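Hi F.,

I've been meaning to write this up properly since the lab meeting, where we talked about keeping a consistent format for the predictions we share between groups. The idea is simple: the sequence comes first, exactly as it goes in, then the structure tokens exactly as they come out, then a line or two of notes. No screenshots and no reformatting. I'm using this chain as the first example so we have something concrete to point to.
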Amino acid sequence: MADSAKRAIRLAFDRAAPGYDASAFLQREIAHRLDEHLDGMKIEPDLILDAGCGTGYGIPLLRARYPKSSVIALDLAPAMLRETLRQHGPKGWRKLLARLTPPRLTAICADLERLPLAHHSVDMIWSSLALQWANLDSAFREARRVLKPGGLFLFASFGPDTLKELRAASAGVDGHARVNRFIDMHDVGDALVQAGFGGPVMEMETLTLTYGDLADLFADLRGIGAHTVLDNPRRGLMGKLAWRRLGENYERFRRADGQLPATYEVVYGHAWASGPQKRADGSQVIEFARRGR
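Output, unedited:
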């Protein structure tokens, strides 16, 4: 991914960090659903990497499940890491104690595609809604590099039907994309195998948020820093005419209850830092499932 795109992403999330949690209902819900995927997994990690930690909402979930583990909180945006430490770092006398003992929570500002960690140094990687902002092949190779043999990689990301209403409504409005292009679950599974992971399991579910009007949807997207569109070189705000056209186009999706839907296709995956499973004919095994609630 181009450095200019990285800078735009970092800036968007830096600006969003102070008020991020107020708009991050969906992100919190998906973090809890990702945590459910750990039920029944036999793993006791000493060191966990929260890759793309945001404001650190996943950290208490990981601490509750693995109370003896240390956590590295990693994010591209420095302001997100400051929020993570403010909310989840040691406080009071614990700050003094942390200076004398190895830290249970370490914050690192870095790129998922260039992890500043040693080979085979972490036992588990957790990544909730961060991979869609990275080059998937590069991020997967780095995850495989830093995981210890037998380590677990668990993640949630967005699939191609995410914000499909907004994509359809914006088509032809002013010639500029309004929604990122997300990768299909099957291609994500293939990328895991190509990166050297074993036993990939992929699941998908669709979640829908509803809004009274389009402005509320955009307010939420701005609130979480997700208004950055990687393939949109345009600068500046949408013009009044384009905004009116977008609103008119989106109206065709208004439901019988008077609400405007915003669909999110959520892709969950996990794999192990071991050789890929193969059948007798040499083909590789990837398990796919549609998640039911």
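Notes:
Residues 229-237 have pLDDT under 50 and may be disordered.
The domain at 3-160+181-206+265-290 is CATH 3.40.50.150 (Rossmann fold).

If this format works for you, I'll send the rest the same way.

G.
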